[in-house]
Design brief:
Radius of gyration: 25 Å
Number of helices: 10
CATH class of the largest domain: Alpha Beta
Number of domains: 3
Largest sheet: 8 strands, parallel
CATH topology of the largest domain: TIM Barrel
Low-confidence stretches: none
Number of strands: 32
Distance between the termini: 46 Å
């Protein structure tokens, strides 16, 4: 993060955070009474970005800006406080640092049409960075990690440094629930549990720590999926039952303070439907508040407990769902892609662990099966861990250390799927919508005379029992999950030669068959958790 020095022309890399610190009035309640913004103008393109500022206590103010275009930017502030108005300057923006690609957005929103074209029809359901670099979310859940003691937060960061995750679901407010009963050392507002909290004045020390932790995540390349509201509250805290005006004041502050962090996503709520005192219209208004005050347009969604939200609403950029059926979990990705027409993330498929609740005592094998089943249907899945016998901290709530078998296998899975062509799509009845992946593969059974094969028929005849991902004649992946056939025969497109890999998703091995194949191939299997990858040879 670069802070401005008014004695010199500041510089910052593209997509990095630039902060203008200012000093103004401390009279009254500046959090609510003082308006502050800056108008940034790109010298060459003339493009204008207006960013709102925020109060930091003790007469200190800040405006944060994330330049998304190299070159020279000029800025000038505006405010009802004369001490804050008319501050101007010039900012030199260089190219992005190595490995920095900007915000994560929907692939369909990328400016470059050539990038969008590479995804074919899958562009509707995929994410990427704003510079066009592909992004697949492999997230984890750590709800209240920034409400823990500093040493626990530090340990969490070190664990994440070694883990495969590139997204983390995290709350702003503390959580009161089983194994989550302690009061944090700091709260988001001025005040106390004894005397009450002033929901119009924020606690700067709390937010300085949140600043620090989100920036640490950014440096690790991890997206912070910030859960803004949730129902797991103590009466003495009262953050879930603030008035609507107080909610919107808080949401505005969050957008103004954190919008310039490139790694931020907004989740309006975790398990929104438990907060029955908030209506659907309230949630829509909250979304409008975020959009109004977030100058940089980050991803936005909301998460359910039982009742699915209508993620087809325009404000929601993607679907963030919790499984509501213990037997059909991430398989629902296929349905939700059709229903909502957006990227689908199963952010709560159940957790690896041994807690007494059914959502948190999955084996590592079952959690990984759910990961693969969701990905094979064109979606994304988020990790969580709830071991209650591995020390004081439980990852899902507090952070600390990981103890399960899944993280290493998620890393392996990530390596496999990040090699897939961008237009790779699930084989189903809609497969013929894919502009670059129309080609159907042969089926072993003969068709009735005069019948033309279509994707639905191919799926029903050849792959009715397994999910398939495919990119034209070039690439195919078939996942067998807990099934363990001795072998499987695959008819191959005429005129093409292929190499075939047997992928053991649990033991994390890839065995390439010793020959190349055309026409058909029999692949030996014989144990669960296997996948078969077939790649066309050049």
């Amino acid at each position: 993060m670069a802070n401005v020095d008014h004695t010199a022309e500041p510089s910052v890399a593209c997509y990095d955070l630039f902060e203008i610190p200012l000093t103004g009035t401390a009279a009254g309640n500046p959090y609510a009474d003082v308006d502050l913004s800056a108008r940034f103008t790109h010298a060459d393109s003339g493009r204008v970005v207006v960013v709102e500022g925020f109060y930091r206590g003790a007469g200190r103010y800040a405006i944060r800006f994330m330049p998304d275009e190299p070159g020279t930017w000029t800025y000038v502030t505006a405010s009802g406080d004369p001490a804050l108005a008319g501050v101007s300057g010039t900012l030199t923006v260089g190219g992005p640092a190595e490995g920095v690609h900007g915000r994560v957005i929907r692939a369909s929103d990328v400016a470059d049409p050539e990038v969008r074209a590479r995804y074919g029809a899958e562009v509707t359901y995929r994410f990427c960075y704003e510079d066009g670099t592909p992004y697949q979310p492999y997230g984890t859940t750590c709800y209240a990690w920034t409400n823990q003691a500093a040493d626990v937060q530090d340990r969490t960061v070190e664990t994440l440094r070694q883990a495969p995750f590139n997204k983390i679901r995290m709350c702003v407010f503390p959580k009161f629930y089983d194994f989550n009963t302690a009061d944090p050392a700091m709260f988001a507002y001025e005040g106390s549990m004894e005397d009450g909290f002033d929901h119009s004045r924020f606690n700067e020390a709390f937010f300085e720590n949140l600043d620090h932790r989100i920036m640490q995540l950014q440096e690790l390349g991890i997206e912070a999926d910030i859960i803004l509201l949730h129902p797991y509250d103590k009466p003495a805290w009262g953050f879930s039952t603030m008035t609507k005006a107080e909610d919107e004041f808080y949401l505005s502050y969050m957008a103004r303070r954190y919008g310039a962090y490139r790694n931020v996503w907004w989740s309006l709520a975790n398990e929104y439907d438990i907060m029955s005192w908030k209506s659907v219209d309230d949630w829509r208004d909250y979304a409008r508040t975020l959009i109004e005050h977030d100058a940089f347009g980050h991803l936005r969604s909301i998460h359910n407990c039982v009742t699915l939200y209508d993620w087809s609403e325009d404000w929601a950029t993607h679907c963030s769902y919790q499984r509501v059926d213990m037997t059909r979990t991430t398989e629902c990705v296929a349905d939700y892609r059709v229903r909502y027409g957006k990227p689908v993330v199963c952010d709560e498929p159940g957790y690896e662990g041994n807690i007494y609740w059914g959502w948190g005592n999955l084996t590592g094998e079952e959690l990984m099966r759910r990961f693969w089943e969701g990905a094979m249907r064109g979606g994304y899945v988020t990790h969580g861990e709830t071991f209650i016998d591995q020390g004081e901290q439980i990852w899902w709530a507090h952070g600390g250390e990981l103890h399960g078998d899944a993280p290493a296998r998620i890393a392996f899975m990530r390596g496999i799927l990040e090699q897939a062509p961008l237009d790779t799509a699930p084989l189903d009845e809609r497969f013929d919508e894919c502009s670059d992946a129309r080609h159907m593969w042969p089926v072993a059974s003969s068709l009735p005379e005069g019948t033309a094969l279509n994707p639905g028929m191919e799926k029903g005849m050849q792959y009715w029992d397994v999910p398939v991902l495919r990119s034209g004649y070039e690439w195919q992946l078939v996942y067998f999950g807990w099934c363990r056939p001795t072998y499987r025969e695959f008819p191959l497109p005429v005129g093409c030669r292929y190499e075939v890999d047997v992928i053991d998703t649990w033991n994390m091995t890839v065995e390439t068959l010793p020959d190349s194949y055309e026409g058909t191939v029999r692949v030996p299997l014989g144990r669960p958790w296997l996948a078969v990858r077939i790649r066309r040879m050049v």
